[in-house]
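Researcher: We plan to redesign the surface later, but first we want a full-length starting point. C-alpha cells attached.
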C-alpha cells in the first residue's frame, strides 16, 4: 500500500512481484481489471494503480475489486 493513512479516498497500490521484466510494468494487470469494468489511474513510475474508494463505494464493490485482483494474479 503506497497511500498515506490520511488520504484514504484515493488508494494507490502495487503488487510485489508483479512488475513485469519486459518493461510493461503494471499494464497487464491494469488491462485485465479494466476489462472487468474497474476504473482507475495507472502510475507507471511507481508500478502501481490508483483507485477511488471514497464513501460512495459499497463494501461489495471493494470486495469485487479485491476478488478481481486475486483472480488476475493467481
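Model: Full-length starting sequence:
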Amino acid at each position: 500500500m503506497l497511500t498515506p493513512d490520511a488520504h484514504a479516498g484515493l488508494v494507490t497500490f502495487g503488487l510485489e512481484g508483479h512488475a513485469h521484466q519486459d518493461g510493461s510494468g503494471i499494464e497487464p494487470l491494469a488491462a485485465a481489471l479494466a476489462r472487468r469494468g474497474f476504473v482507475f489511474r495507472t502510475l507507471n513510475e511507481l508500478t502501481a494503480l490508483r483507485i477511488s474508494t471514497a464513501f460512495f463505494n459499497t463494501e461489495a464493490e471493494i470486495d469485487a475489486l479485491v476478488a478481481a485482483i486475486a483472480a488476475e494474479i493467481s
